[in-house]
Specification:
215 residues; mainly alpha; DNA polymerase, domain 1
Length: 215
């Protein structure tokens, strides 16, 4: 399958798919060939059905079966130029995902407190606040943080697509400046906060307004 693998890898790269997707599709084609002991070029729809059915009987989830089917569809439709093969294979129905009840404040606090290192705690808090995937959070850089707009720019999201995520936690609060001591000028009574310079008055005399001449 060396020649077929090289052709499929070139097709994946020309399609612009991510390296992770390329690895998954190549691995699926290899498993498919090993399952039947033949090159995929000699196999058809019935062999695809048998392969996917075996995965289902071994406990693979519907979403995982969908990934295997997508890989084989790319193999037959693009690389082998035989779209009629996958047209005869039904799609796997994926049930709607039910995330369940949201975590309570105490559960979130316990989850963050379980992180030993400050970096891990910051990473978990960021993912919880913005909904980033683990791969997106790991690839995040300082330049991707827009503190003024409270946005995170995800450069390489799912499908290698860029998007923006709002920071629900907001920007960290700036430390408050200590209040400067207030003093009153003994001459005019003006309240000033600047540190007086020895030998100079605390406030500068105002300049009289200059009269404007005729236009």
């Amino acid at each position: 399958m060396t020649g077929l693998r090289a052709k499929m890898l070139a097709d994946l790269q020309l399609r612009g798919l991510s390296e992770r997707t390329q690895g998954q599709y190549i691995a699926t084609a290899r498993l498919f060939a090993e399952f039947h002991g033949e090159s995929p070029a000699k196999l058809g729809a019935e062999e695809v059905r048998a392969f996917l059915l075996n995965l289902h009987q071994n406990g693979r989830k519907p979403a995982t079966l969908g990934v295997y089917r997508s890989a084989l569809k790319f193999l037959f439709d693009v690389t082998l130029e035989r779209p009629e093969v996958m047209a005869a294979v039904p799609r796997t129905r994926v049930p709607r995902w039910n995330p369940g009840p949201a975590l309570t404040r105490d559960e979130v606090r316990a989850l963050l407190d379980a992180a030993v290192l400050p970096f891990d705690r910051t990473l978990f808090a960021l993912m919880y606040a913005t909904g980033l995937r683990i791969s997106e959070a790991r690839a995040l850089q300082v330049g991707d943080i827009d503190a003024r707009a409270e946005l995170l720019h995800v450069r390489h999201g799912k499908g290698d697509k860029a998007r923006s995520a709002r920071q629900l936690l907001g920007a960290p609060a700036r430390p408050e400046r200590p209040e400067r001591p207030k003093r009153s000028c003994p001459e005019c009574g003006l309240v000033v906060t600047e540190q007086p310079i020895p030998g100079l008055p605390m406030c500068r005399p105002r300049r009289p307004p200059q009269s404007r001449g005729p236009p």
